[in-house]
């Protein structure tokens, strides 16, 4: 697992420095260790979903995945290292969902709705649900995790969307006075309900078609308000 960071609005590139207080991993996993690393991450995601971050013990994860505590510590350092790896996977996938906004010559009406659908699908992934449950449901108890996710996941995506709106305004393709505010409005309209319902268990991956349709409709409604008359 390689850390990621943002060096320009929305750009996700390796590596990201560990936040203050985070224990460093003893070594980077080699190719032979990668299957075990993936097994730990899958097991950790499952257990975090079932028990929450606070109530999960490393022994729970080892019992689910196999292997040993020493191998887990060597790969991730601790429980915080595990959840950072899960968050980083989600951040990377979310950034890829925005790539369509960078395709040249694509009108907003052809870019925003499919982007919204892709991002909505990411909201239903186990990694994203774990991340949202921690930063929203347990963020007060674990502010370093919350703030790290916002700094490296939420804020770059918001900045990338605002930058896209600024470019479209400059090209006379959209009419927006405040791109940063518009980015927040678009995000909330398209995904806020999905985030809340995945956190409380009302939505699951089986609801993907409806979630994608809702995100597309939200994007179309948004566009009707910002396209030139």
TrEMBL record:
Residues 34-94 form the HTH tetR-type domain. Keywords: DNA-binding. This is TetR/AcrR family transcriptional regulator. Coiled coil: none annotated. Residues 57-76 bind DNA. The lineage of its organism: Bacteria, Pseudomonadati, Pseudomonadota, Gammaproteobacteria, Lysobacterales. Residues 1-37 are annotated as: Disordered. It comes from the Bacteria. Residues 22-34 have a biased composition (Basic residues). InterPro entries: Homeodomain-like_sf, HTH-type_TetR-like_transc_reg, HTH_TetR, TetR_C_Proteobacteria. PROSITE patterns: HTH_TETR_2. Pfam families: TetR_C_7, TetR_N.
């Amino acid at each position: 697992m390689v850390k990621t960071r943002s060096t320009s609005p929305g750009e996700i590139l390796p590596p990201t420095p560990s936040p203050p207080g985070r224990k460093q991993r003893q070594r980077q996993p080699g190719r032979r260790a990668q299957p075990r690393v993936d097994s730990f991450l899958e097991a950790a995601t499952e257990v975090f979903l079932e028990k929450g971050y606070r109530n999960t013990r490393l022994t729970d994860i080892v019992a689910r995945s196999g292997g040993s505590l020493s191998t887990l510590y060597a790969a991730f350092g601790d429980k915080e290292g595990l959840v950072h790896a899960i968050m980083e996977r989600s951040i990377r996938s979310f950034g890829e969902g925005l790539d369509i906004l960078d395709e040249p010559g694509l009108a907003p009406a052809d870019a925003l709705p499919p982007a919204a659908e892709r991002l909505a699908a990411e909201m239903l992934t186990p990694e994203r649900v774990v991340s949202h449950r921690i930063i929203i449901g347990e963020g007060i108890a674990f502010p370093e995790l919350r703030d790290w996710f916002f700094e490296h996941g939420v804020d770059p995506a918001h900045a990338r969307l605002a930058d896209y709106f600024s470019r479209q305004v400059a090209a006379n393709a959209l009419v927006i006075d405040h791109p940063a505010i518009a980015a927040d409005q678009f995000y909330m309209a398209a995904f806020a309900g999905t985030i809340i319902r995945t956190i409380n268990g009302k939505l699951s991956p089986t609801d993907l078609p409806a979630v994608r349709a809702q995100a597309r409709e939200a994007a179309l409604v948004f566009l009707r308000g910002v396209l030139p008359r």
